[in-house]
Write a structure and sequence with these properties.
Blueprint (H helix, E strand, L loop, with lengths): L6 E5 L2 H10 L3 E8 L3 E7 L7 E6 L15 E5 L2 H9 L10 E2 L6 E6 L5 E6 L3
Parallel strand pairs: 1-4, 5-8
Antiparallel strand pairs: 2-3, 3-4, 6-7, 7-8
């Protein structure tokens, strides 16, 4: 039996990235140094495991090349408009206004984290 346990992103600014994901409801769970080379910050949503690993390589300041194969991660939010308002306070705007893919479907939109990774925000149906 297999289980997906986490996704890892390489980041360039710990505080900025942690603050972004906290605005999406993630909690910082722990930090794990990797010798003198890097530090992993594990984050998770309430009631779930540490599903997001942010890796900061000491001394790295230039952006990472995300490549053409990466798409996005998706998370659900209770109130899409309130989430976007919190992000807007830090200058983070959606790629385009919220929309639905099909009639009667959930509202969604995409934002980018501080290192330009795409995050799909899907509003939970009431």
């Amino acid at each position: 039996m297999s289980e997906l346990i986490h996704t890892c992103y390489r980041i360039t600014d710990i505080d900025r990235s942690v603050a972004f994901y906290e605005k999406l409801g993630f909690e910082e769970r722990r930090r794990m140094p990797i010798r003198d080379e890097a530090i992993n910050i594990f984050m998770g949503l309430p009631g779930d495991g540490d599903r997001l690993e942010l890796t900061y390589n000491h001394g790295r300041t230039e952006p990472y090349d995300i490549g053409t194969g990466y798409g996005h991660i998706a998370i659900t939010v209770d109130d899409l408009d309130a989430t976007l308002e919190r992000l807007a306070e830090d200058g983070i705007e959606p790629e385009k206004p919220p929309y639905t893919v099909r009639e009667g479907g959930s509202r969604l939109c995409f934002v980018r984290d501080p290192d330009d990774y795409r995050i799909e925000l899907i509003e939970r149906k009431s």
